[in-house]
Automatic annotation (TrEMBL):
Keywords: ATP-binding, Nucleotide-binding, Translocase, Transport. This is Iron complex transport system ATP-binding protein. GO terms for molecular function: ATP binding; ATP hydrolysis activity. Residues 2-239 form the ABC transporter domain. It comes from Alteribacillus bidgolensis. It comes from the Bacteria. InterPro entries: AAA+_ATPase (IPR003593), ABC_transporter-like_ATP-bd (IPR003439), ABC_transporter-like_CS (IPR017871), AdoCbi_amidolase (IPR002808), P-loop_NTPase (IPR027417).
Amino acid sequence: MLELKGVAGGYGSVPVVKNVNFQVNAGEILGIIGPNGSGKSTLLKFIYGFLQPEKGQIVIDDQPLTSYSQKNLAKKIAVLPQQTDSAFSYTVRQVVELGRYPHQTGWFSSNSEKDEKVVNKAMNDTGVFSFADQPIDSLSGGEKQRVLLARALAQEPDILLLDEPTNHLDISYQLSLLDTLKDWTNSKQLTVIAVLHDLNMAAMYSHRILLMDQGQQIALDKPSYVLEKTVLEKVYDAHLQRKEHPSVPSPLITLEPSDRSFEQPSDLLNTLTFDETEERVCISSRFYWKTLSSAVIGAGFGWHRFFVNRHVDKDYDCDNPQEEYGAYLQNISLETADTVGMMTAALLKDGSFIRLKDSEGDVLVYATAGTSNAVDVSKAYENAVQSFTIGTINIWIFIDGKLTEAAYAQVMMTATEAKSKALLDHKIIDNHTRTLATGTSTDSMLVAAVHSGKEYMYGGTASPLGKKIGKAVYDAVAETLEKYNQRKNENEEWE
Ligand code: ADP
Ligand code: MG
């Protein structure tokens, strides 16, 4: 176990590190982050005994660092320094063998069998075995980095210090290095203290993070507690957003350019262009809209500028609708990455557009509806038959403004309630249960906002935006249902 108590010091009389206190346990990865010049490398130099702190104490396994001989310290701690110059033309194997020095006795000790085994394993683990006989100077920066890591591992330390170890590595080696370190902390109870530049890597791999600023210890805790937007913005003097990693429970920090570099005009609802045929409705914009949708193409959050509602046959059946739809878009020269694409078996000529605009805001709703697979959501579980008919109520909501993520979620709720109310008022029946339907089994929804101009915190029915969306969605769904019913009654061709 390593402990720092009130450690402070630097170079000469200027204190570069001021009062750092922490303990690291066996098997732990401690990430150190902080801006350039905040004292991270200096702190590591104290820990491997390269520099003496002016104040405080460093204790390793209950003994003060100062009581260790250089050789004994090297058995405890190995270092991968920030600067990786190698002045001599050693071969890779020779460099890694240097790591065995603290374990050898006598002046002219030769490598034992154990040394050779450890050296080979270290080269294997870091993927440099195939370079073993090449001079280290002939390797790329990333390869050299891995050789030096192999040397550190050959030391068989309890504690491994790494100073920006991923700097010269491409993303795949960054991941494999950190994966390997994580493995070793589990399997060998290795302790890792790593200065990491990349906040997201630090967040994913560290058990705890130490945040330094101007020599001060600002925070020391779990990544999700330390990586706070306001703290980071202050320390790094940069605009950033904190999101959550989509697949692992870890924060995700994204940088933001200055507002101006991505500025776009507001009043963009007026710039939309509409292209309507029997086969599809396509709304296009020159600008990107921030969207949240359950569409076939472009689901989840995204940035899009083409919106396609495609009519397909009632019997449309496809193993891979994304792929099929992608090919369809390619055919009509639309980039999948720029497009939100929905499908419906409903006739597009029954579609309805409602725009509500006043001093409080500007929204446009587009809806298409067919109700042959209408469902009562409260009874859907009674129906064993899984109905995967193509989405029959599609609702698009365009908003001239900037929404919080909460507002996106609330707009979805508001619009869903409005849709259900329209179905109830039109007495649409679930054919399986003979009760009133609340939707159809494959409905889809899109919320698109220009992300400029007016800002909306909320989209629920208590908010002016929510009220507008409630009415526009209700009216649009009602209108399209009426057209649909009318044709059904006239016994025309209907879905
Ligand atoms: P970090 O690793 O966080 O970027 P460092 O610990 O390397 O920061 O440096 C902290 C401060 O100490 C910086 O202001 C730097 O200029 C200074 N410093 C670093 N190394 C030396 C040195 N060898 N002699 C004098 N000052 C130094
Ligand atoms: Mg540094």
